[in-house]
Amino acid sequence: MILDYIGLKEINGSLIVLDNVENASFEEVVDIRLENGTMRQGRIVQLDGKRAVIQVFEGTRGISLDNTRTRLKGHPMQMPLSPEILGRVFDGAGRPIDGLGNIFPVKKADINGTPINPVSREYPKNYINTGISTIDTLMTLIRGQKLPIFSGSGMKHNELAVQIARQAKITDNSGNNFAIVFAAMGVKNDVAEYFRRSFEESGVLQRVVMFLNLANDPIIERILTPRCALTVAEYLAFELDMHILVIMTDMTSYAEALREFSSSKGEIPGRKGFPGYLYSDLASLYERAGMVRGKKGSVTQIPILTMPNDDVTHPVPDLTGYITEGQIVLDRVLDNSGVYPPVSVLPSLSRLMKDGIGEGFTREDHPALSNQLFASYAKVMDARSLASVIGEEELSPVDKKYIEFGKRFESQFVAQGFNENRSIEQSLDLGWKLLSTLPREELDRVDDVILDKYYEKAIQSDSSVTEPEKSIDE
């Protein structure tokens, strides 16, 4: 039996309140018919006996207390799913906005997902090649991992997101089953158009599913956007055996929408006004990444978040760092000096890369090279600190070599063109070329077998290039 509830008890912001509701359930979807016949959707977000608080997706403007009809649908919000979903563009609530019509679903799935049994999880292995040297070499993205990007306001995280989506690929025989799910939350119209145009012009849109929640869209949709995106990712990965990379930007906009929604419900705020359940709410999104035993597909996440005032202790990056397996940090100083992508190497890491690189995955020298580049760049920072006190001219010859290594490392290895797609071999070879500018005795993180094979080769190839240049200068 279908019941319509006529009239409302209360309207508060984006929330409406119904009394004397029978057999309602948390997260249940409702249809709301206004006095003029238009329809809106909502979901039950709070139950207190027979009193139901409903969140209206499109906002409550124009809703009457007397003549509004509310109908409970009997199920939570669902996302229509089909293999044809690839190449489509949706709004934040999963409605098509590309003019290609509705999805004809093979099935519908609850956007809140189903928790993965920890016992059935497989340990993430095998890397995803992004074509970006710093990420592939020093903080390798592993299939099934969640690896966030910590950025700041006005930095080039949008360009980096587009470059990763355009270049990312897997290297084994299942490479044809790789796709991107891209979710943008709270972005301006020009940024949304930039994302769409970039994917169309680069020809990768047919393997991308886009969700665009604009800054002028209802903030309630912002809470749904990552859940709709992850539901699509899970369907493609675990039912169609695809390897899916989910890029979500900007998680800070999502958290701020959650804070506003929590405040409208009258909940007690926590740190900086965010709800006390922010950690578990973020975890409910991030933990939907992974691999399941018996399934060929995988879900990998790159959440992107902007840190207010570049503060890494802000609740959103702070809690994200606890849940995820590492982070990629963008540096304001590098960005201001024109380095793209401005990846800050030392505070960045990938906790799972040790099991997805090396012989059989990338190349045998990869782990040792990565460790040595980290160690050498740390000494660059020490040498720069010393030079700021006593002057560069007073440094020892070895410290001067580290200063020169640091300049070349940032200008040749970290810096990379927006359209430059480097293979893992090119990145590793470039790392050895830079290390060849340092004395061999300084490379204490690499064993002699690897040094004999790659360091000596890099010195020979580097000298064969640089010697003619010196003679021309002379």
TrEMBL record:
ATP synthase A/B type C-terminal domain span: 355-455
Keywords: ATP synthesis, Hydrogen ion transport, Ion transport, Transport
Domain ATPase F1/V1/A1 complex alpha/beta subunit N-terminal intervals: 10-64
Pfam families referenced in this protein's UniProt entry, alphabetically: ATP-synt_ab, ATP-synt_ab_N, ATP-synt_VA_C
GO biological process, one term: proton motive force-driven plasma membrane ATP synthesis
Keyword Hydrolase: no
Entry keyword annotation includes Ribonucleoprotein: no
GO molecular function terms attached to this record: ATP binding; proton-transporting ATP synthase activity, rotational mechanism; proton-transporting ATPase activity, rotational mechanism
Domain ATPase F1/V1/A1 complex alpha/beta subunit nucleotide-binding residue range list: 131-350
The protein's role, per its UniProt record: Produces ATP from ADP in the presence of a proton gradient across the membrane. The V-type beta chain is a regulatory subunit.
Similarity remark: Belongs to the ATPase alpha/beta chains family.
Protein name: V-type ATP synthase beta chain
